[in-house]
Amino acid sequence: MVSTLYTATMKRDVLINYLDQYLDIASFAPIDRSSNGLVVGGPDREVKRVAFAVDACQKTFDLAIEAKSDLLIVHHGLFWGSPLPITKSHYNRVKTLLDNHLDLYAAHLPLDAHSEVGNNAVMARLLGLLQIEPFALYKGKTLGFKGVSAVSLDPASIAKTLGFLNPIILPFGKQEIRTIGIVSGGASDDVYAALDEGLDCFITGECEHQVYNDCLENKITLIAGGHYLSEVFGVQELAGHLKKNFGLETVFVANPTGL
């Protein structure tokens, strides 16, 4: 149970333990290429300000340090399942974190699938969907969510509500959209799960070429809002969660890629 005692600071390891449990980090280890959890961090210390970002990269680190953050929580981390030499840009990234005592925590699939602060659940709520349920199985885990709109929606209004600036829209389905499935990021293949369930619309981040004709021939609308913009929701919602429940200072570090 989350404490209701708001404090200006808290021990980092207490926070990390909470995040690991709340996001169910361990259960995703068998299926997630990302190294999730605390991936860069020295001895335990007090944490006051936590930065949040989509990507672990040099610009994000620099902005988090400029904001005087103690911990940075990202969706896309530094390590992806294979040994990576700490040279060139990767060396600079790690050195920046160590030199500036900025700890790094990553939550990839756990921050897609979470029913409260996950990318897909947040998008479903923003669209006002009802009967929200898990959707789209991936290696034994459901990562997305689906739901039903009480009113008819159109692709342009959906994209606007979600803040998609230059979406790719394949408007091949019904003109009045009611049932929607959502899986953020590079998940256009999950349109087939939406087709299997007879949904009107599928929302994701990227649109791959090979799904075009399947969407056309099977009469479903696909909206791809961009990988980055489809995955700002989780880290922003988690920031609000930590601020509300622990009184920590939080800051979202924006680094849009346009992709």
From TrEMBL:
Source superkingdom: Bacteria
Keywords (A to Z) from UniProt: Metal-binding
The keyword Metal-binding is assigned to this record: yes
GO molecular function, one term: metal ion binding
Pfam families attached to this UniProt entry: DUF34_NIF3
GO cellular component: cytoplasm
UniProt: a divalent metal cation binding residues: H75, H76, D112, H227, E231
InterPro entries assigned to the protein according to its UniProt record, in alphabetical order: DUF34/NIF3 (IPR002678), DUF34/NIF3_sf (IPR036069)
Keyword presence, Metal-binding: yes
Family per similarity comment: Belongs to the GTP cyclohydrolase I type 2/NIF3 family.
Subunit and interaction comment: Homohexamer.
Protein name: GTP cyclohydrolase 1 type 2 homolog
Native source species: Sphaerochaeta pleomorpha (strain ATCC BAA-1885 / DSM 22778 / Grapes)
